[in-house]
Amino acid sequence: MQTSDLSDSNQTHYWRPTQRMDTNLYAGDVSQESLFSVQTPELAHNSSSSVSFSPDGFQPDLHHSPDYTYPSLLETDQAFGGNVDELHVRLSEIEAMLGTDQDYAESFDVSSNWGRNDVNSNGEEYRVMEDIVARGDLKQGLLVCAKAVAENNAVKADLLISMLRPLVSVSGEPIQRLGAYMLEGLVARLSSSGSFIYKALKCKEPTGSELFSYMLLLYEACPYFKFGYLSANGAIAEATKNEDRIHIIDFQIAQGGQWVTLIQALAARPGGPPSLRITAIDDARNAFARGGGLNIVGQRLKKLAEAFKVPFEFNGLVVSGSDIRTEHLQVQPGEALAVNCAFVLHHMPDESVDPQNHRDRLLRLIKSLSPKVVTLVEQEANVNTAKFFHRFQEALSYYSAMFDSIDATLTRDNKDRISVEQHCLAGEIVNILACEGVEREERHEVLAKWKSRFTMAGFSPYPLSSYVNATIKNLLENYCDKYRLEERDGALFLGWMNRDLVSSCAWR
Questions:
Q1: 3-state secondary structure of 139
Q2: Which of 38, 137, 354, 454 is 20 to 30 A (C-alpha) from 270?
Q3: pLDDT digits (tens, 9 = 90+) for 271-307
Q4: C-alpha 72, offset from chain centre
């Protein structure tokens, strides 16, 4: 991407958020009329349930996967030490909270009496929770429940959770909706095998086209993904503005929509566009929402590039980030290399999960390729190595802001909103709370920790251009004024009121 002012070749050309393109050039299986005001939605699932906030393609492993086989009764018996009745109770509890086979708009109405016969109703904890329920202080009630779970007091936790359920609702206020999914996570964690019960959940499954529509709705309702893609594209455009051959390695391409505006901007370069090669890395499970393999993404981008007369090459790699090797990437001499890591690195296992520490290994591999720029976009949350209770507190703070921001756009009785939260956020929340070890795929870190990792790998910061900041500000004019954009420590932060939610920066 180069100049927007033809008389100044030092300025980088940016595709403005208000500009649109001919959507027929990048048509998918569903209507995409509004898809390209900035980029197509990359939102999808990387955690162990539904669709994740992280925009890296749908992963229908677990209960969404057509290939997933639900455990047999024998496996169930073994996983729960022979107590199949307990498993059935746990599953019925969580399925009731999820509203399986019921109207999602109904409030939860779970009548289980777990623990009521085992805990003294005159005890201190019971009276404290009664007071919390009477005051309607759901946030404090969630913390009390989480504390009991953290202390491994299952009997007390069961009782407190059952007392708190009347306060949660998938169609209520933001904290009530979030509370429903956080209680789901606590119930799953209480089982002797949280990851097992998590995988056994049977939610109402969306079809691929339904899922895509939920992704699109979340993409349009909140600016988080557009912010990430615009800022990353701006850094890449700046770093490669004088290059004739550009090679982008995208570590999670999903729908490929991030590159639509970049191709359009490259076409506007004075003197003609450079050649563009994209190496797309994708997990095989991400094909569900887009309805096929990486060849679909490649064909769409190729068609778009041809329409804008941008020389284009696409190379798709279906491989896990943990298995990436240098030879997979086919970096060639003479090309300007840009590496895009948008909403993906937090899924890489680090030293706390795997002795091989694939998170830092991948950064060292990228550095060995001598890229012109590496973009990093991540959720600003500290849930990787934090102990359970602190992780719960952080998730409660983070997703409270997220659900508040959704509430500013989508009405509370909107059935689509309920589906968006159910299939695009709930799974991520439950994965953070219910799973440990390799089963916990949602391992977000704050920017300070990412800075430490990039620095140890030999990178130095690449300052974002003022044009990027201006472009994001222009984007936010279309959204609620409670969104906050801040530039500090060489990075951009997008938040809701006083809570940072997404950070974006670049390295070289």
A1: helix
A2: 38
A3: 999 999 999 998 666 677 677 789 999 999 999 999 9
A4: 31
